[in-house]
Every structure is written in structure tokens, then in C-alpha cells.
DNA sequence: CAATCTGTCTTGACATTGTCAAGTCGTGCG
DNA sequence: CGCACGACTTGACAATGTCAAGACAGATTG
């Protein structure tokens, strides 16, 4: 019907002001529920109500979508992390909490950010820069927590430890193997609090605050 | 040539006693270098020198390959972990080290084990059981480290903390964002040692050994 | 010894995917 | 009025995962 005049083929949804956003959100939803492997160009295009080639216009290729997600994720993350750091009196505890909360609230972004094979940090300049900014924020936290660099003579030891704990808990929560082991009546929110308390106290011995 | 008599089409490599092993090893090599997304049925078949359908005989489908890798990984991991636990006088330090070393030495396996969308722990019974055994070993470690459950009233807090630190460092090392930040002259082996020392000391405050 | 079964593969086909190439169409601008 | 440009579209193409249907060597059975 109405093929002669060559109208937009998909009259219902198409030509929204930001197809770009729709593509990104569609991809993020798929990543969060089914993993990045499940993202198909044609599938996200269908979800956005556009042709299978429309996403290419904005992102170039599949890797471009992931790079855009990665950049957005690292930028939002750095924003939240820096905001916490600039307004807390207990940096270790509050930043750990911000970190884990960000990860569990932005599973789609986080999954891409820490999958180097798809993150685009090595191929897409903007994604790399956003990642670097996030890493700088982490170093700021370590310096704030222990200006003298704690008990270790390796200046990276404290940042790595903080990062490992936060990243470790985040991925364990996100990827399920931990949640499956936890009693159902314990909300993950409470678990995060307990963990950050426990972790903060554990680290105390390495740097006398 | 020689098509008439219907001989094996690939005379050079084919019909080795264990195509199964070749398929698994091919897949693992791809996963370790390019990620699990890059694993293609037809590619691993080509590497193993067999037809594109041979892997299906052993694994059913793509997910079957991942499930087999996952099971093998968790089994080996539990073996190593238990062995360390049964022969150490410093369980926290040595098991942390065993954990991280296993991960970095078995990147292909580890990547699959902790990607629930492909690990098969929810669909393949044997993969699930192997995972449960590994988790039980972790609980053993926590009990050994702190029989009274440390300073927390949540019995999972110590296992989760140990796991988060080990898993966090492992994935950060494996997936690159950390290695890229570390001075080139520091071998990751030394880093692991420093980390386990630092982490062990950090945890000391929560449980007086 | 012939027939049958079974494990280990193989070739063939199909729908679906990522991506290249080449339009189409409205909108602004000279 | 013409025409370049952005935002798409339709149309290919090779490669992929998987279903179906053999092929064939060796063991089992009559």
C-alpha cells in the first residue's frame, strides 16, 4: 500500500528526532539482559523502528556502537565518582559505594566498559579519553584516602586494591554467580553497604586515617 | 582430486583421536586472544582440520562448547585451589595468589566461567556442578582463615571480600585496563605478590589470626 | 560370513547476520 | 531554480549457526 509515492516505509515510529538515542538504548537493553554478543545491528534497528542500515549512519559499524556506549559510560561514571569525592568526608567508603552502585545501575554500560575486545578504548579516541578520565578519578581517590601512599611503597597498590574490590564485587553481582549464592531475603543494597563498611575497615590497617 | 572414491576430504590433519580436544583448544585460543564473541563454529572446525559440522557431534551447539570449557575450568580451578588450601600455613595469601595465577594462566577458561550469558551454568548441569564445587572451596578458605567468621555477622562477608579482591584483580589484569596503567618494567608476577601481601595485611584487622 | 548398528564424521541447504554500494527524499542555501 | 547535504532507504554479498541427510569404518549380532 502507498508504495508508489515512495513514502517512509515505516510510518509509525520512524524519523524520530534521535534515532541515535533509540539505537543506543536498544543496544544497552540487550546488553544488560543478554550480553553484548546478543547485540545485532539489524535487531537494534528493528527495535528503533528504522531500516537495518540506519545505525550505520550514526555509528559506522557495530564497534562504533560499543565505543559510543563505552564513552558515555566512562563519562557518566567519572562525573558521579568525582561528585562523590568532592562532597564526602569518608572517601573510601562513599566512593566504593558509588562505584558499585553505578555498575549495578548501568549494567549495559559497565559490561562494555570492561570488555576490552569491544570497548573501543584502543581504537576510538573518545572512548579512550573517557576511560583515562575515570582512571584519573580513581587515582584522586587513592591520594585523598592516603596522601602519603599508605603502607606500600608502590604508589599503585592502594588504587589497585580499591579498584579490585569495587570491580570485583560489581562484576560478581552483575554476572550472577554471587547473587545466586546469597539468601534471597538480603537485598543487594544492604550487601553493598556491609561490603563497603567491611572493606573500608579492612583497609584501615594499611593507612592510618 | 580423488573425489570419486569418497575418501576423507581432509587427509592431512583429520581423524586425529581427539577432535574434541582440538576443537576445545582452538576455541580457548580464540577466546584468550580475541574474546568469546570471536569464536565461530566454522573457524574452530577449520583450525581443527575438520568439517564445519564436526564440532556439533561433540558439543551439540556453540553453547555446548562454552559449557564444556566452563566445566573444565571450574574443575581445574577447584583442584588447584583445594590443593593450595590443604598445604599452606597462610591460606589467605596463598589462595589469593593461586586464584589470580589461575586466572591469568587460563584466560580462555576464566573468561567463559564468569560470563553467565555463555558459561552454561544455568543450562548445563555439569557446568553448574563444577561451579558449585569451586564456590564450596572458597567457603572452605574463609572458614579456614577465620573460623569464627571474622568481625562481621554476615557469614558471607569474608568470602565475598576475598572473592571480590581476587576476581577484581584477575579481571583487571586479564582485560587490560590495569596493565596498560602499570609501568612496563613491573612484571605482573611481582604485582600479584605485592597485591596479595597488601590484601592479606588489610584483612588482618577484621580477623585476628 | 552377511547384516545391522553405532560413533564419527561429511556435504548440502537455509535463514540470519555485518557490511558495502547505490539510491531516495526533504530541507536549506546560493 | 538548482543542488548539495543529512538522514535515511533498498539491494546486494559473503560468512555464520544450525537443521537434515548421508558416508563409512569398526564392533556386534544373526
Main attributes of the structure:
homodimer; 209 residues; mainly alpha; 10 helices; disordered N terminus; DNA-binding
Secondary-structure blueprint of this entry?
Two copies of one chain form a homodimer.
Chain A: H1 19-34, H2 41-48, H3 54-59, H4 62-85, H5 91-105, H6 107-113, H7 116-119, H8 125-145, H9 157-174, H10 188-204
Helix pairs in contact in A: 1-2, 1-6, 4-5, 4-6, 4-8, 5-6, 5-9, 5-10, 8-9
The structure holds a DNA duplex (30 and 30 nucleotides).
Description:
- 2 copies of one chain form a homodimer.
- Chain A is mostly helical and 209 residues long.
- Chain A has 10 helices and no strands.
- In chain A, α4 (62-85) packs antiparallel against α5.
- The relative contact order of chain A is 0.11.
- Chains A and B meet through α7, α9 and α10 of A and α7, α9 and α10 of B.
Brief description of this entry?
2 copies of one chain form a homodimer. With 209 residues, chain A is an all-alpha fold. The first copy, chain A, is built from 10 helices and no strands.
In percent, how helical is the residue content of chain A? 55-70%
Q: Low-confidence stretches of chain A at least 5 residues in length (pLDDT < 50)?
A: 1-15
Give the oligomer, counting copies of the same chain as homo and different chains as hetero.
homodimer
Summarize model confidence as the mean pLDDT of chain A. 85
Global shape of chain A:
globular
Structural class of chain A: mainly alpha
Please trace the helix and strand order of chain A, writing H or E for each element: HHHHHHHHHH
Number of H- or I-type helical stretches of chain A: 10
Largest interface: A-B, 46 and 46 residues
Amino acid at each position: 500500500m502507498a508504495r508508489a509515492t515512495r513514502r517512509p516505509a515505516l510510518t509509525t515510529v520512524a524519523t524520530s528526532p534521535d534515532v541515535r538515542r533509540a539505537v543506543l538504548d536498544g543496544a544497552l537493553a540487550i546488553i544488560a539482559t543478554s550480553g553484548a554478543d546478543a547485540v545485532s545491528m539489524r535487531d537494534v534497528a528493528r527495535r528503533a523502528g528504522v531500516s537495518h542500515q540506519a545505525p550505520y549512519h550514526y555509528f559506522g559499524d557495530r564497534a562504533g556502537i560499543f565505543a559510543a556506549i563505552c564513552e558515555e559510560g566512562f563519562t557518566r561514571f567519572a562525573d558521579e565518582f568525582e561528585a562523590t569525592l568532592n562532597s564526602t568526608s569518608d572517601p573510601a567508603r562513599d566512593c566504593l559505594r558509588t562505584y558499585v552502585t553505578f555498575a549495578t545501575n548501568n549494567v549495559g554500560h559497565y559490561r562494555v566498559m570492561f570488555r576490552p575486545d569491544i570497548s573501543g578504548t584502543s581504537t576510538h579516541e573518545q572512548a579512550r579519553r573517557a576511560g583515562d578520565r575515570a582512571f584519573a578519578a580513581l587515582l584522586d581517590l587513592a591520594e585523598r584516602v592516603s596522601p602519603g601512599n599508605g603502607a606500600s611503597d608502590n604508589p599503585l597498590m592502594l588504587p589497585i586494591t580499591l579498584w579490585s574490590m569495587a570491580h570485583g564485587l560489581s562484576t560478581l553481582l552483575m554476572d550472577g554467580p554471587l547473587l545466586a549464592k546469597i539468601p534471597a531475603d538480603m537485598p543487594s543494597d544492604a550487601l553493598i553497604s556491609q561490603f563497603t563498611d567491611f572493606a573500608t575497615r579492612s583497609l584501615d590497617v594499611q593507612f592510618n586515617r
